[in-house]
Amino acid sequence: MPKAPASLGDGQLLSGGIKLYIDGSGGGRTGWMYEDWRKNSKYQDEGNRGYPTTDPDVYRSMVKLFHDAGFHIGTHAVGDKGIDWVVDAYASVLKEKPTMGLRHSIIHCNLPTDHAIATMAQLQKQYDAGYPEAQAEFMWWIGDTYSGNYGPERSPRILPFKTFVAKGIRWGGGSDYPVTPLAARDGLWATVARQPQNGVYAAHPFGTAESVDIHVALRSYTIWAAHQIFLENRIGSIEVGKDADFAVWDRDMYTIPTDDIRNLKCEMTILRGRVVYEARITAVSSK
């Protein structure tokens, strides 16, 4: 197997490196946290701070094993304590064996601390590693569950995209399908709007202080995501010499209101220069 993610066969099947877990979920209140989870937003889930799903010392040994062998590692980490443990493990092995370009990642990275953010920024700058693989749609599709479980103090800090940009941190955007719907337009909208589906506990529990504009959201779904699967020289931007992979939308994302992003319609999809999807245009009767 290739050690860093690389193409197999016709180039559309990839070996994705090694996936590890350090904790559970935000929906199940099992992510590894420094403080108690909440119930229904205002009630403490007393004594429940989640837990590491892998013995933390064993996890660090696994990271060292795979890093030293030259494998890309992506670790599922949701809670703030879990994320700190992951980035510190990456920093430790990279200091011991400096290796450029393995792009070790933090999958989900829901609630990073200031320490985690600073460490990710340094790892990206120094080693091309420490990249969040984030799902903005969590704030929409399961956003009411999230705001109820994290509570009003922590919810505005979830997926701090604007802080990432300010610190020079790039991330890959995605859906975590089937946890949330697959369509990219949903994730693009959620990155900008940060709005839950029903507003059960508050209309905007995540606020907009950590929102970014559609230009940044698109980069997280295109060239930054391509970088995270080691294909930035082939896809992720429209340039001479790259695969002709792109979608044609019915409206200009740069000019439409934020809420309209969710209603975009794809009119055509091109894959490697070949039309693989074309919307059927139906004439509307005037009767």
List its traits.
3-stranded antiparallel β-sheet; alpha/beta; 5-stranded parallel β-sheet; 9 helices; 287 residues
Point out poorly predicted stretches.
Answer: none
- What is the end-to-end distance? 61 Å
- The mean pLDDT is 94
Looking at the structure, what is the overall shape?
globular
**Biggest β-sheet: count, sense, barrel?**
5 strands, parallel
Category by helix and strand content:
alpha/beta
The number of distinct helices, counting runs of at least 4 residues, comes to 9
**Widest sheet: strand order?**
3-6-7-8-9
Residue fraction in strands: 15-25%
Give the SSE string.
EEEEEHEHEHEHHHEHHHEEE
Instruction: Report the C-alpha radius of gyration, rounded.
Output: 20 Å
Number of strands: 12
Helix content: 25-40%
What's a quick, concise take on this entry?
By secondary structure, this protein is α/β, with parallel strands linked by helices. The chain contains nine helices and twelve strands.
Could you explain the architecture of this structure?
- There is one protein chain.
- This protein has about 290 residues and is an alpha/beta fold.
- It contains nine helices and twelve strands.
- The strands form four sheets. A five-stranded parallel beta sheet has the order 3-6-7-8-9.
- Strand 4 and strand 5 (about 45) form a beta hairpin.
- The radius of gyration is 20 Å and the shape is globular.
- The chain starts with 5 loop residues before the first strand and ends in a 9-residue tail after the last strand.
- The model has no long low-confidence stretch (mean pLDDT about 95).
